[in-house]
Amino acid sequence: MAYSLLLDCDPGLDDALALLLAHGDPDIQLVGVTTVGGNVGLAHTTRNALQLREYLGFPEVPVAAGASQPLTREAVNAAHVHGEGGLGNVTLPEATLPLSEQHAADFIIETLRASPGAVHLVATGPLTNIAIALEREPAIARWAASFTIMGGSYTRGNATPAAEFNILADPEAAKIVFDADWQVVMIGLDLTLQAQANSIVVDRLKALGALADELIVPLATFYFNPKVPDWDGQAVHDVCAVAYVARPDLFSMRPARVDIETRGEFTTGMTVVDFDPLVPNALIATKIDVNGFWAYVESVYAKVAAART
Ligand code: RIB
Ligand code: CA
């Protein structure tokens, strides 16, 4: 079965690995990439997306830039995690192909309008572009075949004890998104931290040759510190969100009501998850088949690597 997928992202180490999966899976037709400020500023996330497009070889896929700032708050970033440029110590050739003239939100609206019910929308950064698109055209909530995010947590955060980075970066946008007329598939930290790229996985990835040396392994290990006790490897958070669209069989899910805290002194950006809701608005990923996930991801990456030799 082929899936059309539009990825809104803030590349970003794991966003780049997610883009590689979306590009490499023959069952996924990547129909667009939109960028948002998040891990690093919009100029960098957009430059990274443009460079990845040419380095990986999907020149026909439009890239459209979106919001550089959250809806109302001051921008935060995660350069301390992803590096100042956003791709760790990976350097890619300068892009030569143009950025779309459209704003990301308008690109999302027009792409979904043109193929109602056919395009799976995935967001792996702050939800600002999605919120802007919903405010400009609420019907996208009906037009999207599905809507999956990497974000949130029903236990602890990573940016604060309560909040995961993508939600904390723009809580007002997240509130708009979770309150819209669709079901949000939430791939949160509780899920993504189950499938870290441990040393066994990294050793297998290293066997993929130049693509692994130049891109995959540096992205998947940039901030991992083996000296930290009880830390197996770097999470590939955003890869899990794309994997869900193509391989939902690898995931256990529970319906829930998710509300976003936007005022708490210590809890702003928290996804408050009620697993016994009157009216669910989300599907929460609770468990992943870790071996199945890595077998899938590695098989797709191997296909891309083989095609480059
Ligand atoms: O908390 C993890 C999320 O924040 C991932 O999407 C990562 O890329 C960062 O954006
Ligand atoms: Ca991201």
Give a brief outline of the structure.
The chain has 309 residues and is of the alpha/beta class. The protein is 39% helix and 18% strand.
Instruction: Please give the count of helices.
Output: 13
Mean pLDDT: 98
CATH class: Alpha Beta
User: What best-fitting shape do the alpha-carbon axes yield?
Assistant: globular
Structural overview:
The protein has 309 residues and is of the alpha/beta class. It has one domain: Inosine-uridine Nucleoside N-ribohydrolase, Chain A (Alpha-Beta Complex). Helices cover 39% and strands 18% of the residues. The protein contains 13 helices and eleven strands. It has a nine-stranded mixed beta sheet, sandwiched between helices. A two-stranded antiparallel sheet has the order 7-8. Helix 2 (42-56) links the parallel strand 2 and strand 3 (63-65). Helix 1 (13-24) packs parallel to helix 2 and helix 5 (128-136) crosses helix 8 (171-178). The longest helix has 18 residues, at 290-307. The model has no long low-confidence stretch (mean pLDDT 98).
